[in-house]
Design brief:
280 residues; TATA-Binding Protein; 2 domains; six-stranded antiparallel beta sheet; 6 strands; elongated
Length: 280
């Protein structure tokens, strides 16, 4: 039987059976992953910026970030499962949308997991000083009321009988044992001027600067949530030699756990203060 004897439309049906799926249908997985990742990250940015602008408190904004992190984890699972299913069915994958979506979701998930890790491995404290035994005292900036009382460990048998300040000192020593006072082989005035220049270069808002007492008080504001952390630098003459002892304290205004932010700030500032001077 020749081709002319075939039923009408048979060849058309055969072609239709093997025709590729529409582009929109084939790209459904990629569009879903990319759209979900952008929605999660965009929602977190809006929540953070809105909190920083005072449109709502930071509590709901942090919850949005938390759920966005969970969402990005689920989006990655969906992407991997969808890719595996497409491979099994020998169907093409639109990597032009799936790839960027997976990268965005993975990047935000890593950011989210980093804070989970910091929250579980670092102590829930928010007041860090290079001299825990004699921390610099704020004068121009009013410290938060619970700065030295909201310290974990009251029920810890190992810290029974210790005051909140003593518990804070122990917790800081265990987590940030490298943070300590800095000795500069310069005059106190030179050390004060150097510290003032570093404060200015960081863009911190200065509340007080008193060379006579060697005290600088300032506030550092985070980019998105606009969290404010108060900073105090204290410069005193060393007991021996023509040198200065510099201490620094950094305290979060809100929140119990600072995720290591204050320690990182103190560590970085004192390292920059000592850099290139041969100080110890």
């Amino acid at each position: 039987m020749d081709d002319s004897a075939q039923p009408a439309g048979a060849s058309t049906a055969a072609v239709g059976a093997t025709a590729p799926a529409p582009a929109v249908q084939r790209d459904l997985l990629g569009r879903t992953v990319l759209g979900g990742a952008l929605l999660a990250v965009g929602g977190s940015l809006v929540a953070a910026l809105g909190s920083g602008w005072g449109l709502w408190s930071f509590g709901p904004a942090l919850r949005v970030v938390f759920f966005a992190g969970i969402a990005c984890g689920l989006i990655l699972i969906l992407a991997i499962a969808g890719w595996g299913w497409a491979q099994r069915k020998q169907r093409p994958v639109a990597w032009r949308t799936l790839g960027p979506g997976m990268l965005i979701a993975a990047a935000f998930l890593l950011y989210f997991l980093r804070f989970i890790w910091l929250g579980t491995t670092l102590p829930a404290i928010h007041d860090i000083s290079s001299d825990p035994a004699d921390p610099p005292a704020f004068v121009a900036i009013a410290p938060r009321a619970d700065s030295e009382t909201a310290v974990p460990g009251a029920d810890d048998p190992k810290m029974q009988g210790l005051s909140p300040r003593q518990r804070l000192s122990r917790l800081q020593a265990e987590a940030y044992g490298d943070i300590r006072s800095v000795r500069l082989e310069t005059t106190p005035q030179q050390a004060f001027d150097r510290a003032s220049a570093l404060v200015a270069s960081r863009g911190w808002e200065v509340a007080a600067s008193d060379p006579a007492t060697g005290r600088i008080e300032a506030t550092d504001t985070s980019t998105f949530f606009r969290f404010k952390d108060d900073v105090l630098i204290r410069v005193r003459p060393a007991e021996t030699g023509n040198a200065a002892i510099v201490d620094m304290r950094s305290v979060s205004r809100v929140g119990q756990h600072d995720f290591g932010v204050n320690a990182n700030r103190v560590r970085a500032f004192l390292a920059d203060l000592s850099a290139g001077t041969g100080d110890r």
